[in-house]
Amino acid sequence: MKNFKKICFVLGTLTATSTTAIAANYNANHFFAERHSMVRGPYVEFARRVAEKTNGDVTFQVFTGGSLLPPAASLQGLRDGVAQISYHAGTYTPAELPVANLIGNMAFYNTDPMVMAFASTEFGLTNPAALEEWAKNGVVFGGGYSTSQYFMMCNTTVETLADVKGKRLRMPGGAWTRFAEYIGAVPVSIPSSEMYTGLDTGSLDCAVAAADALDSFSLKDVVTSMNTLAIGNYYAGFEWGYNKAFWRGLSEDNKRVLFDEMAYELAQHRLAFDADVNKAVDAAKSNGMQVYSPDEALVSSLNRFVAEDEKVLIENAKKRGVENPEEILAQFKSIVDRWDALLNSVDRKDVDALAALAKTEIYDRLDLSTYGMK
Fold first, then answer.
1. Could you tell me the residue ranges of all domains in the chain?
2. Which residues, by range, are in coiled-coil regions (predicted)?
3. Which residues of the chain have pLDDT under 70?
4. Residue 20 carries which DSSP code?
5. CATH no. of 2-144+235-278+322-365
6. How far apart are CA 19 and CA 35, in angstroms?
7. Which listed residue, of 67, 132, 142, 146, carries a Cα 20 to 30 Å from 291's Cα?
8. Distance CA 370, CA 361 (A)
9. How would you list the strands of the sheet with 139-143, edge to edge?
């Protein structure tokens, strides 16, 4: 296995540093399974269309399920050329991506996943502090994403604030961990791949994640109840990040293809993710899962936490060396509010209309001759 990883590293590095007009196969990395909505369209179909529209100049071999890079190594592996394009969850690298984690922890500011997918994309492509952070890590940011809303999926009844106290909740870290502690629960930080085992063995009482996990991670087999308190949504990091050497070797025409396809999949993915959630919840309910609305005390606790936690975000960002985090958050909120308004002007079930909005309002405004070249 060690030798295999070394071979992957060498091949990836050679590919990244040999980016000429010669057609080549490049590595695309995602740690979710191929059937997940974040992989099916944004990686598998994306790779197919990119190869077709670049006449084979840019052909990605898609590695899924962590088969090329495990979650915590995806940022370094992308930088080092093991992959030329990769998904990365920012929570795994808070020291390397303090700005990305600062805005990622604003998950409770607006819990509309469509708004946050488009807003996080614009921020990552245009904010000076974010761009400096990507460059420092050898990454060219391609586009963002957002999961659907996070709910508590439990192997016991969790309906009220009193029910939550003392429960062991799987949380993705950051603000979610602080919220668990705020309401008297016990946060457990494990990757999504371990949620099933935790619920099955009883080391977890609830998994806090998007409800498509009932199907994509088979949680429906071990979950008996779900609470619909909207505990934010996850968008830290990037859905598409590119190795810097690879990006610089692309022609402007091929970069435009990538931009256009990311704009399309940004929209397509959001609709597919929500469709997967609805399908998974319906199937789990038919299998006996109970769905509870949060009581007033639980809702009030979340609202108080959101109001109080922003100062913690700012303090943590300063400790990690972020300059002017207050200004960065203000800029991010402005972008979020802009997309909240923009998305009211379009049919949010029309993939092509949403993709066109992403193109005109984000990607078409970037200069292909300079973007990602510093």
1. 2-144+235-278+322-365, 150-233+280-310
2. none
3. 1-24
4. S
5. 3.40.190.170
6. 30
7. 146
8. 18
9. 58-63, 24-29, 85-89, 237-243, 139-143
